[in-house]
Each structure stands twice: as structure tokens, then as C-alpha cells.
Amino acid sequence: MIRLLVVEDSKTVQRALVAAFEADPELTVVGTAESGEEAVEAAKTLRPDLITMDINLPGMDGFDATRAIMSTCPVPIVIVTGRMNPKDSATLFRVMEAGALMVLAKPDPVGTPGYQASVDNLVHHLKLMAEIKVVRRIFPTGKAAPRPARPLTLPSAQPVKVVAIGASTGGPPLLRQILAELPATFPAAVVVVQHMAVGFTENFVHWLNRTSKLPVQLGTDGAQVSAGQVYVAPDHFHMEVTSAGRIMLTEAPPEHGVRPSVSVLFRSVAQSYGRHAMGVLLTGMGKDGALELKTIRGRGGITVAQDRESSMVFGMPGEAIEIDAAQHVLPPAAIIELLHRVTSKGANAATS
Amino acid sequence: MLDSEALLKELLATFEMEAREHLGELASLLLALERDPELTERRRLLESVFRRVHTLKGAAHAVNLPDVALACQRLEDVLAGLKRGDLALGLAEFDALHASINDLEQRLSRGLSAAGAVPSPSPRPEPPRPAPVVPAAPREDGEVAAARPSRPSAVPVAAPPAAPPPQQVPEPKPAQQHHVAARPQGDETVRVSARLLEELLLQSEELVSAKQSASVLHEELAALTGELALRQGERARALERARRGMKGGAGGEGALAALLEQSCQAERHTEGRLRLLEKSADKHLRSLQGMIDPLLEEMKKLQLLPCATVCDPFAKLVRDLARELGKEAEFTYQGGELEIDRRILAELKEPLLHLVRNTVDHGIESPARREAAGKPARGAIRIDIRLQDANRAELVLEDDGGGIDVARVKEAALRLEVAPAELLERMADQEALQLIFESGLSTSRSVGNVSGRGIGLAIVRDSLERLGGHVAVASTPGGGTLFRLVFPLSFARIRGLLVQVRGRDCVIPANNVEVSSRVAVADVKRVENRDTVLVNGEVVALVSLARILELERSAAAQEQSLSFVLLHAGEKRIAFAVDQVLGVQEILVKPLGRQLSRVRNVSGGTVLGNSKVVPVLNVADLFRSALAVEAPALPSPSPAGRPRPVSVLVAEDSITSRTLLKNILEAAGYQVRTAVDGADALSQLRAEPCDVVISDIEMPRMDGFQLTAAIRADSRLAALPVVLVTGLESRSDRERGIDVGASAYLVKSSFDQGNLVEVIQKLS
């Protein structure tokens, strides 16, 4: 039985959510809160297995509440919110930086045809998230990301033309951090698959753009991939990169239950770029992309998996390490360092 | 698990409450924003506005009201823009924002009524609201555009109605309860529907009848014990005699005496047990009182709401109205935390609305005129509420506007002939001002759609008086106007059935009304000398209410059917014929006042909606009166109502029989005097005659025969009917009774109450 705390300032929505959750035999709502303060208090006293958190709350908002909860009594927190204007994405993903696992959409209105499916989807994800062991997070006041002291030795000198990054649960803040640290002159294209609830990918791109020096966009079918650009796979489509350097969006069946899937992206990148490809598999639940990371490695590309300590969920990277797909197992700061090095090296190599 | 229809219904109900709360808060937040706070405060307010709109959007989406959600979305976009940019909001932008809120409110009402979940929250129809403020953007184009050319339409106003309103949708706009749970401080609060509270109150009020019957039970027990106690002397005498008999007598007599002694002892025993019963009944009554009285007190507290619930919406109303009239006005209030009966607040709402609108319309001058008079351009309207004493509150509505021109009031009063010219001439200004509460009197030169028709203030006065309060006005020319409203904190309201009797209205407490109906005259049956009707298979006495109330019988045309109301008081039920039944009303019973300590059949008065003062009938009295005059047939012409009840003198030496007779006769409506024997009776009769004498035969000093003979011998008393009641039934006695001139002869063993009363009625 999964014990839920529902945080939502609208009584109506709160009632609707509770009704939807209680209808599932494995979920039980142990408490509701209407403000951030109440949420923090309830998290402490009720010790729920999972919290669904609204973002806009009176007083302490969803961000502050999540931060407070994650730094005192960590609980898996999932954001359940309505669709948002892409321009207001900041608040949404700030909560993820504070430790929320993922964003999920509120169910469709009761009585509409889509209601049951939307509830099922929401409940399915909640059950997955409830299993995640979250750790207490200490939020640094300064923004000093420690860099590894020892430079990495690099196994190959091929110029990397495409960096493919796959991420799931806990990925957005990492991606933001990574992209923010890449220089505007980054000489390779970046293609990204981030598992995301339908409807929020656009917000995600918008949010990334706020800090990224490289332009971030949704991948569009047939677009020419060019260096220094970031392409994020849109909702509902697998994203591949062809050997002609074009983006291809397909509606092939989901892999590992998801679409877009990291596997499809990595496979195409391995196929099309071989030794000029780099695969980075970040935190996330499941195995999406692990086997295909090995494919990239097999075709001479560079492969990286995030290390256990920094991964919110050590599923995908763990699997990759298990099957020996990753050449490097690194924390985020070292991944950034590596990206700098392989590309500048690659650039040097290309010019020499 | 709920099925989705039930869930949706529940969600809609939740949503309605939530939405009203948000809208109310949004209006006040915008007003606070408009007061031009400093930057951080403005940010905070804007953030709150944004959050509320966003939450409302989410909630509207959850209950599938896309129209409302869309309007929220548009508003949210605008707000997000405002939030991101650091811009100055002008009057025009605020107009547009307020208009958006109004628009949202209308969509909400439409949406909710379309979703079929509008439990009309306020039973009173709302007075017509001003038409939504027309979007200001194009109107003041030049100014706005010049000020901020970069964002010409930053506030794109209420979305044009997506679809024309399908029909004239009534606008249930109460926001009445939006504060019940909106106050975070203090105890935890629970939102409960007002209807449920109302029902609870009614149900607990019904407990009062349980208390009353316990009290009646106790009284009866006490009376019975008292009667037995009074017999103590008699018993002692009987015992003594019995003992004497036992000593002297033998055989049968001795046995009889022993029997008598036994029975006397048994009676004493019974008396003791009765006394115990009475005591426990008394205890029972007290404990019931101890439970019910505090319960009712607490229930009344549940009806309390802070005055803020009524005052809050005025802030927005004043703002919108002033803008519509090209004025500026700000509304503030104090004392909003004072808690008053919800129903009183509901009654106050409309008069206050009239006053506030009136103040904005007539009181507050245009900004130009205000500035010319050296006042701030923005007018101030202020409400102060405070307790006057334990039972009354005082509300003062004050403005700093132009005041009321007494000369014009007098002029208008003269025109309307409210008062004669010479009286007006002499009338003090303060007194003349009160004339504005006269119906039809308006000093406004133009009749606007806001006010000026001269009806509003009359309504205000009527409403206040209906509540049992009053209103007065004071004004300083050029300095403003002050209305003082005084009203009670709690409500002595009952539901009453309004009936008409001989063209007069009166009210019967609905608690006592079992049913009201019509019956064909032909179906009125005369049984045992009374009119009766059949109600639900039961025969009930029918009495003319007009006769009970001693109203003149008009020469009304004989109708085919007549209306009646079936009343009950305790166990008794009687149908009262009335001219017509007008309906049930909630009324406020007012006591008769000190001048009239007691009026038969009337318990108080009430002021009806049409300002008519109407008596509230006392049902217990009605029953007493009905039993006293029940005999004459209803449809047949009867002599005019009796001027006074029939008086009866009871002569009886046994205290038991005397009390019994007295009780029977009084219950039947007679005025009863008693005498202990014939001599006593005769001297009483000579001092003050009566209508009928009822006498025992065997009495000390002067027996019944002697008394009858003495009465017949007295010239002043000769015609007096005398009824002889005796325990002996012997033909010789009866004959002797007739001989001495007794009018009737009743034997105790055979008599019952009906028999006795019937005989007296025949004789008197």
C-alpha cells in the first residue's frame, strides 16, 4: 500500500485527485495540504511514501516546500500540475532542482472520455516513483561546482560530432547544469531524449534556454543537425539522427514503454556517426539506452554513464555499467569536463 | 468508490464554493493593488492574484468548465506579463482587470447553471447589478498609448463572450459564505453548507417541544399531588370516624370501617408515590432544560458570521460603480470581525447595498468638484460596525461627499405632500432630513440607473424596521452624510401561516398548523351539537376563527366551500374556519409591549413585508376560546359573540368533588366560583349573581334543596338556573328537586363531563 500526501491549493482539484487515487487499491491518501507550510508539516508527521505537489501554493510555494521537505525528511515528490505557459516554465523546473522527481499532468476532467486513461497514467507513474529511494539533499548556498583534480585520459582522438544524452527521472536539473556549462562555440551537436510527461517538453526546452549558451530547440523532422545546437526529442515521437545528419521523427512503437526512447536515439547515433559519436546516459529508472550505449561503444564512440552517488535513480546508468557499456563512470562535473575535452581535442584534431 | 456522476456533482459543489472565494479575494486583491503599494508589496499582491487565477483555472478544468478555464487562462497570460515586466498599472488597466473579474464571474454563473449545480445560494433576488464595465483600452487610447507605447495592449481585457449567453441567466451572486473558512487564524474551520446548518437549527428547535411536554407532565403531576394533599383533612376525618365505628360497631359496620381505613392508607401511599413521581418529573425537566437550552444557544452561535462577509464585496462594488460614473471612491470598513446572525446579515445586505450605491451616486462628487472644494479627488466611504449593547449593533455608513441639501428635501417633501407646508417650515433640519426615507422622495435631479428613483431609502427603512431596528441620517452640507443603522444581533424569527379573517390578516405560528385545506359547506357535519369536518378520515371540530376573535360577522355571500386550518395544541386538534389562507411566511414576532400585558388570543405582532402590522395569534388561547364557545352551529346565523364567558357557581362540600367540577367547567371555558355549602353559596349569590348554579344536595348548614328554594324565593335570583348534582339516585329526591325548582338534576354516577357541559349550555 502506497501512502500518499496530496498537496494542492484548490479544494476542487484536491478532491478530484483524492478520488482518483483512492480508486486504486494500492494507493491510499493519508493526508492533504493546501499550502506549502502545511505540506512540510504533514510530510514530517505523516511520513508518506510519496507526495504529489502543486506548484502554485499560498505562502510557501511548491519549490520552497519541496526544498524544505527534501532537506529534512526526504520523500519522493512528484509534481502534479496543469498545463503551463512555456514562458512560466521556470517555476516548474525549479521544483525539480529542489528534488522533485518528475512532473505529471493533472487528470482530465471527471466525466470526460479521457478521464480514466489519464488517471491510469498518473497512477502508474506515481507507483513507479514511490519506489525510488531519495536521499536527503543539502542545498549549497554558493554555486561552486567542484571539478575533478585529475584530468582524464582519453582513449580516442576522433572529433566528436554528435553528443547524444539520455536521461529520465532526475534528469532535467542535470541537463540544465551540463548545457549551461558548455561554451557557445561548442563544436558538436547535442541530441537529447529526456523522459517527460506529455505536455511539458516544451516548458522544458524553454527552461533550458534560459541558462544554456547553446540554442535549445525541439527536434523537428528533417531538420539538419548542426554543431552548437541542442535538439530535444518532442512528445510522442522517437528521435533519430540519419547518416545524412538530419533529424528523423518516427512513430514506431515505444521501446521500454517509452517514446521518445533513449535506445532509438543511441542506436541511430551509433549507426550514423560511429567513432564520431558520444553517448551519455544519465540518471533514470529502467534500462532505456543501456544496451544501445554499448552499441555506441562497440562502434568506436565515447560512452559515459553517470555515477551512482550523483544519480537520483541509478537504473539506466547502473544497467549500462553492469553490461560494460560505459567507458567512463562520472559525476556531472566530470561529465562536463569530459565534454569540454573531447570536443576541443576533436576540434584540434579536425583542424590539424 | 464514487461513480463519476456523483463525483462530478460533488466536485461542482466544491468548485462553486471555491470559485466564489477566489473571486471575492481577487476583487479585494486588485483593490489593494490599486491603492498603489510599494514595489515589494505590489509584487506580492500580483503574485497572489496570479496564483488565485491559476488555481481557479485548474479547478475549472477539473470540473470541465472550459469556458471559465479559458477566461482564466487569458487573464493568467496578462498577469504573467505584468509579473514579468515591471510596469505601472494605470486606472485603465485596473478597469480592464476588474472587468475581467466581472466577466469571469458571469461565465462562472453561466457555467455552473449549465452544469446544473446551482443551489441558489441566496433566496433573495439580487438587485440589478451594473452592466460590466466596458473595456477601457480603446477609450483612453491616446493617453495610455502615449504613456507606454511599447505595450499598447498589455491588458487585453475580458475576453469577448465566447458564445452569446444562451438565455437570460439569472445571476446568483452571493459570495455570502466565502469567508466562513477563509480565515486561517484561530481554530480550525470546517466548511458546512448553510442549508445543513439551517436544518440542524430547526431540528434542535424542535427539542423545545420535548421540553414543553415534560413541563406539562410535571405540572399535571404537581396538580394531582396537590389535590390529593388537599384531601388530607377529609381523610383524617374519615379515618377517625372509621376507628370510632370499629370500636363501637360490630360485624358489617366494623368490616366497613376497616376497609375504609385501609383505603385511606392506600391513598396516602399513592400520594407519597405521586410526590416521588412529581419530584423525578421535575428533575427530568431540569436536566432536559440543562441540555436543550445550551444546545440551542450553541446552535445560534453557529449562525454567526463576521460582518466582513457583507462588507467585503462593497469595496469592489464601490470601485466599479464610481468608475462607471466617472468618479473615484474608496471603500473601507472597521468592525468586520463582529459576528452577527447570518440571517440578519442577509437581511441587511440589500439595504446596505442601496445605501452604498446611493452614496456613490449622490454623495460622492466628481473628482473635479471635489478638488475645487479642497478635498482629495478620491472620495472615501466608510463603514463602522460596533456593538451598541448586548442585543444590538450599530452600523455607521459615512462619506465625505457633498451631503444632503435639506432645502431640497423639504421642497421634494412639499411636492409629494409628505407633510403640510407649515409643518415643514417649522421642522428642524435634522428632522426634515429623515424625510428622505419616505417612499418616492428623491432629491436627485435625474433618475439614473444607479439610484435616484426615491424608492431605495424607503426600502432601507422598511427592511430595518422589519428586522426590529431603525435607521437615521445626519448630514453636513459639503462635508458628507452619515447613516446610522441599528439592528438586533439575533433573530426571533418563526414561520407563520398568514390567514385572512373577515378581511383582516393575522398570523398563526406554523408550528401549530397541521394542515390547511378547503371543505365543501355541505360536508360540514353537525355532530353532538358541534360543527365537524373530516380530515384524513378523522372527525375534527370546526370553529369559526372570526367568532373566536369576536370579529363582526359580515353579510358574506354563502360560499360553496370554506377554508380552514387544522391546528393542534398539545394533544388537542381543532379546525378553524378562515376566509382564506394566504401562505407561510417567516416572521419576526414582537411583544405587545408593556402597555398590554395580556391580550386574549394574541401573543404579539409582526410587521409584514408590506409594512402592515398584523397580530400573531396565541394558539393556546384560541383553543381555550374555542372550547368556551364551541356550541353554536357555524353556518347558521348565531347571536353576536358573547360579551363575556358564562359564570358558574359551584356549591359542594367535598373538596374533591368541588375541585373536580371546577376543573371540568374551567376547561370548558366557564368562569367558576365555588362555595363550601348552601349558605355560603346563597350569600355569594346575593353579593354577586352568576349565570348558572351547580349544587350538591347533601351539604352542611344548608343543603341543595334548601338552596334551590332560597334562590327561587329571592326575587333577584328567581330566574337563575340551578343544576342539582347528587350521589343519590332516588326518585323521591329527584321529585323533590323538581318541586323546589331545580332546573336540572344530575346523578354523579352517571354524569360525564360532556353531559354536564351540555346541560349548562342549554340552561345559560
Describe this structure in words.
- The complex is a heterodimer of chains A (352) and B (764).
- Chain A is of the alpha/beta class and 352 residues long.
- Chain A has helices spanning 11-22, 36-46, 62-72, 89-97, 115-130, 171-181, 201-211, 262-273, 290-298, 316-322, 332-351; strands at 2-7, 27-33, 50-53, 77-81, 102-105, 162-167, 189-194, 216-218, 230-232, 238-241, 247-250, 277-281, 302-306, 328-330.
- In chain A, the strands form 3 sheets. Chain A has a 7-stranded parallel β-sheet with strand order 8-9-7-6-12-13-14, sandwiched between helices.
- The longest helix of chain A has 20 residues, at 332-351.
- Mean pLDDT of chain A is 84; it is low at 140-151 and 346-352.
- In chain B, the strands form 6 sheets. In chain B, strands 10-14-15-13-12-11 form a 6-stranded mixed β-sheet.
- The termini of chain B are far apart.
- The A-B interface holds A 9-13, 15-16, 19, 22-23, 54, 56-58, 81-82, 85, 87-88, 106, 109-112, 115 and B 1-2, 4-5, 7-8, 10-11, 14-15, 17-18, 48, 50-51, 54-59, 61-64, 76-77, 80, 84.
What brief labels describe this structure?
heterodimer, A: 352 residues, alpha/beta, Rossmann fold, seven-stranded parallel sheet, five-stranded parallel sheet, 11 helices, 14 strands, 37% helix, disordered C terminus, B: 764 residues, Four Helix Bundle (Hemerythrin (Met), subunit A), Methane Monooxygenase Hydroxylase, Chain G, domain 1, Heat Shock Protein 90, 5 domains, six-stranded mixed sheet, five-stranded mixed sheet, 22 helices, elongated
Topology:
The complex is a heterodimer of chains A (352) and B (764).
Chain A: E1 2-7, H1 11-22, E2 27-33, H2 36-46, E3 50-53, H3 62-72, E4 77-81, H4 89-97, E5 102-105, H5 115-130, E6 162-167, H6 171-181, E7 189-194, H7 201-211, E8 216-218, E9 230-232, E10 238-241, E11 247-250, H8 262-273, E12 277-281, H9 290-298, E13 302-306, H10 316-322, E14 328-330, H11 332-351
Parallel strand pairs in A: 1-2, 1-3, 3-4, 4-5, 6-7, 6-12, 7-9, 8-9, 12-13, 13-14
Antiparallel strand pairs in A: 10-11
Helix pairs in contact in A: 2-3, 3-4, 4-7, 6-7, 6-11, 8-9, 9-10
Chain B: H1 4-34, H2 39-62, H3 66-84, H4 91-114, H5 141-147, H6 194-230, H7 232-248, H8 252-302, E1 304-306, H9 308-324, E2 329-334, E3 339-341, H10 342-363, H11 367-372, E4 379-387, E5 392-399, H12 406-415, H13 421-426, H14 429-433, H15 456-466, E6 470-476, E7 480-488, E8 493-501, E9 504-509, E10 513-520, E11 525-527, E12 530-535, E13 538-544, H16 545-548, E14 561-569, E15 572-578, E16 580-588, E17 602-607, E18 613-617, H17 619-628, E19 647-651, H18 655-667, E20 671-675, H19 678-687, E21 692-696, H20 704-713, E22 722-726, H21 731-740, E23 744-747, H22 753-763
Parallel strand pairs in B: 2-4, 13-15, 19-20, 19-21, 21-22, 22-23
Antiparallel strand pairs in B: 1-3, 4-5, 5-7, 6-7, 8-9, 8-16, 10-14, 11-12, 12-13, 14-15, 17-18
